[in-house]
Amino acid sequence: MFLCLDVGSTWTKGAVVAPDGTLAGVAQHRTTPPEVMDGIAAVTAALPTATGTLACSSAGGGLRLAVVGQERLVSAEAGHRVALSAGAKVVHVSAGPLSNVYAVRAARPDVVLLVGGTDGGDEKVLLHNASCLARARIAVPVVLAGNRAARDEALGLLAGRTVVATDNVLPDVGELAPEPARAAIRKVFLAHVIGGKGLSRGRRFRDLVSAVTPDAVLSGVATLAAQEEGAVLVVDVGGATTDVYSAVSTVDDSPARTVALPPDRRTVEGDIGMRVSAPGVVAEAITERLLPPDSDLTAKAAHRNENVEFLPATDEEREADLRIARLAATLAIRRHLRMVGQLGPKGATVLVLSGGVFRHADSLAGLEKSLRADLGPVLRNARVTVDREGRLGPAGLLAQSGHLSTATALLRPAF
Fold it and tell me: How far apart are CA 35 and CA 409, in angstroms?
């Protein structure tokens, strides 16, 4: 039996999974900083006994990452996409020779991803930026994933800093190689970041966590996509952000572009959410003509922004929450598709809705009808379902730890 834990900023969630993929139990408890192990103990006590534990975390704000690249349309964009797919919240992106290192520091990243140049190509910008980061005394770890030919010199310039060097994210023009950088970002997060969030007094929590939560979820989405003949699309609407994940199991037939896309992708919309970011949902919906300028949702969104602990108690309040959620999902998926293009030749075969507003809704028929009308061909052949038991994260943890058959079996009956 595996205990899969997700320690978030608000809730600590647990699921016990049998080796055959049976979900033996789920539980949750408020996250308990400054000692998150207390919340973990409460969740564990409410679940069947497990022999192994796997954990991911986005507590303490998750992983904040700054990307420093060579040019906006190539290396910086490649780094941005790799960072998102690694489960990071990208708080700063710069392109070209650094002239304002203070902007990087002001973004308060946990990690800097330094990229630039194809292997054997231009070295000047990468080395200039490495030198600037060294002189500016950037204290956070640096993942160096640029031109292989400049790696040793860049490491020399960054001597005294915590640096993890890995393969170039852009080894050749049009070729994106995200996996080594994603693995390095994960390694840095676990070794240098998770223990510095003030979440636990000892090493037990640091030793327990094996992934950033969005990274684990993306692995779960990719595992689900391996069972499909087309693409999987997942939208997770939270209080402050809305994440969209997609994964394709067939060759992507989207037009060639400067930076190719990996088969599994994630975007995060920091201005779209159910509480803190509710006004952003309404404002964007008005701009996109999904709502009239005088919509009654403007006041309702403002109230939720000012009262982030708000829980709907009437049918009218629950309906308003669903309207905001529908708009958040529509807007976030639109943005995701603008970035990644088509989801393979067949579009999405399944759309998974995630988030408390969907799990607790009595009916999503209106939402499904609205999404199909808005997104057209992308959802033409898709079945729409809800991750009511939060299976995607545990499946991703299991897949990452080598238990792929258990992860696959966990997902099969739910989706």
Answer: 34
DSSP per position, 344-395: STT-EEEEEEESHHHHT-S--HHHHHHHHHHHGGGGTT-EEEE-TT--HHHH
The pTM assigned to this predicted structure is 0.81
Higher per-residue pLDDT: 187 or 392: 392
Q: Is 106 helix (H, G, I), strand (E, B) or coil?
A: helix
81 phi/psi in degrees, rounded to 5:
-70, -40
- What's the pLDDT tens digit per position in 186-200? 888 887 778 777 788
SS3 assignment, position 28: strand
Q: Which domains does the chain have, with CATH numbers?
A: 2-59+200-211 (3.30.420.40), 63-192 (3.40.50.2300), 215-411 (3.30.420.40)
Question: Quick one: pLDDT band at residue 263, thresholds 50, 70, 90?
Answer: low
Task: Map tokens 């159910």 to a residue.
Answer: 274
Residue 261 has pLDDT above 80, yes or no: no
Q: What is the rounded (10 degree) CA torsion for 91, 324, 220, 389?
A: 130
DSSP character for 113?
Answer: E
| Mean pLDDT of the 170-184 span | 86
Backbone φ and ψ of 55, nearest 5°: -145, 145
242-248: strand order across its sheet: 264-269, 242-248, 231-237, 348-354, 383-386
Structure-block tokens of residue 228: 């499909």
Q: What is the pLDDT of residues 398-414, one digit of tens each?
A: 999 999 999 999 998 88
Q: What pLDDT, on the 0 to 100 scale, is given for residue 42?
A: 97
For every residue of 138-169, DSSP letters joined together read --S-EEE-S-GGGHHHHHHHTTTS-EEE---S
- Give residue 190's pLDDT: 80
Tell me, what DSSP letter sits at residue 190?
A: I
- DSSP per position, 217-272: HHHHHHHHHTTSSSEEEEEEE-SS-EEEEEEESS---SPP-SSPPPSEEEEEETT-
